[in-house]
Design goal:
The chain contains four helices and five strands. A five-stranded mixed beta sheet has the order 2-1-3-4-5, sandwiched between helices.
């Protein structure tokens, strides 16, 4: 049986990894999640620095090409040491980040996620891509 993959552009904060992996498994029927991490990932992507975003895009393309990932999650979370801003600013960063990833033109669904203090995962933004 072929295993299905998703991809998460997530913060390095360990509190976010398992909730996001579980959420993607439950909501996108994936078996594994490739993790691409940066401190304050939502801020990093939202700043839209070409060299940084190109590096992240190359990593996402590896996940899509090698593992046939069909969903990419962009994650922000509460109490982020690298992006210590209000929840509403995080939501704006997640939306901006999701739109940037969608602009890469990859054949995937892109979902922006927020992880709260109870490890609950919430959809902030979504673009439905190709269904595989």
């Amino acid at each position: 049986m072929k295993k299905r993959f998703g991809t998460a552009l997530n913060c390095i904060d360990g509190r976010t990894q398992i909730p996001v992996i579980n959420w993607l498994k439950e909501n996108f029927d994936v078996d594994y999640v490739d993790l691409i991490t940066e401190p304050g990932m939502d801020k990093v992507l939202a700043q839209d620095e070409w060299d940084t975003n190109e590096r992240l895009k190359k990593n996402v393309i590896i996940s899509i090409t090698a593992h046939k990932s069909n969903v990419v999650a962009v994650v922000g979370h509460y109490d982020c040491a690298a992006n210590p801003v209000s929840d509403s600013k995080h939501f704006k960063d997640i939306i901006a980040s999701t739109r940037i990833v969608k602009s890469w033109g990859l054949p995937v669904t892109v979902v922006g996620l927020w992880v709260d203090e109870s490890e609950g995962v919430h959809v902030v933004d979504i673009y439905i891509g190709a269904i595989k």
